[in-house]
Amino acid sequence: MLRCASLARCGPALVRLRPALLPVAPAARTAAGGVGPRAPRGRVVAFSHHSKEELEEVAQERFGQPYDTLDTDQKKAVGGVIGGRAMREAAKYVAKSKAADGEARLAAITDRIATSEQFVAARAMIQTNPTEALRVCEVLLRTIPPDSQ
Questions:
Q1: What share of the chain is helix, strand, coil (3-state, %, to 5)?
Q2: What band does 132 get if pLDDT is binned at 50, 70 and 90?
Q3: What is the model's pLDDT at position 13?
Q4: How many whole angstroms separate alpha carbon 62 and alpha carbon 47?
Q5: Dihedral sign (CA 61, 63, 66, 70)
Q6: pLDDT at position 49
Q7: 82, 89 in Cβ contact below 8 A?
Q8: What is the per-residue burial (b if ≥16 Cβ within 10 Å, else e) of 79-106?
Q9: What residue stretches are annotated with the IF140 C-terminal TPR domain (predicted)?
């Protein structure tokens, strides 16, 4: 990787190559020791590309209250439900496609959906049966290829 002694000399090139390498401006750090960037008030916890209607629908369906009143963990659960729907929809469209690698892609998506569902079931089982949840997680760790995410 190219290193530059002066950001002024190669700043624009560095910005184009890898913006994450640029230092955080001191004004963006917190007042308490300069540990990290300060989040503005009212900022959304995580970026969501889902429509407001979709988030509200799942929040009412799962928790019986509006999305804006949910806490962080509940909002993550809503996003997970929507993400699962998106994976199933992707599998549906891949199954319809006539691409040469369609069957392999469909198998990969289906396997990923099954793995995700097993992990969600294990997380739900933690409170009631922790030993079984641990066993399921260990099986998942053995079956997931090491080069995957």
A1: 65, 0, 35
A2: very high
A3: 42
A4: 20
A5: negative
A6: 61
A7: no
A8: bebbeeeeeeeebeebeeeeeeeeeebb
A9: 85-143
pTM attached to this predicted model: 0.49
Q: Which residues, 6+ apart, have CB-to-CB distance to 72 below 8 Å? A: 45
Q: Return d(Cα 80, Cα 74) in angstroms, integer.
A: 10
Name the residue type at position 6: S
Decide: helix, strand or coil at residue 97. Answer: coil
Tens digits of residue pLDDT in 93-120 = 888 888 888 888 888 888 888 888 888 7
114: left (phi over 0), alpha (psi -120 to 50) or beta: alpha
With beta carbons less than 8 A apart as the criterion, state whether 44 and 52 touch.
no
- 55: which 2 tokens? 């988030």
Local structure of residue 31 (DSSP, 8 states): T
Q: How many residues does the chain have?
A: 149
